[in-house]
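Table S2 (continued). Query chain:
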Amino acid sequence: MNDNYYRNKDAGKPDPGRFANRPREQADTHLHLLLSRQDILDGLSDLVSRLRGNGTHARIQIVGGAALLLSYFDRRLTVDIDGPLDPAEEITSLAKEIAEDRNWSDDWINDSAKIFLPNGYGRKSAQWTTIFDADDVVIQVATAETLLAMKLDSAQRRGDRELDDITKLLAILNIDTADEAEGIYSEYYPGMDFTPRTLAIVEHAIENPPDTIQQPSPPTIDK
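Corresponding output:
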């Protein structure tokens, strides 16, 4: 952070008290069917089966709420599975068949979030952990650090909607200062300082850590 940023960080800074009575878990208000962790695993297992049946070599990389549900902690339900898909056209075509069978939204898996991935211009690009690798089908989730950087970037635009996830990711990564959080953010998204609002969110998250974080069992995707 630069000196001018420190001098002006209180300008337009939101009142930390606004977070005090905010629900820790808040359901998304979309017209989509919300997906549970088991829904995600079932959908991915079905998709893997169809990809293998077609002899398709595929890579599915998952970010956002679905990645958090699969590998890091229990949270509110998610509306979709986001991330880079390859080959995108064939994966989304098979996904639509699954959606029809399960009465889900056609875009229950999509690649719309790929535009928000770190673009590689920083010291770090998106990092991945493989959760499934068989018969030329690979499924990966973003690492906790990558997800934190992406959530912080989202908070720059969307504000405290990301508070719950940021709070838990900071705890998982043992980050206890805003400077450290901003350092990680800048490694993935260079040239961007925290806005006063994002700084307030991070400081509140650090000052109000979760009592416990129950890490889920390793995700099981049927072959």
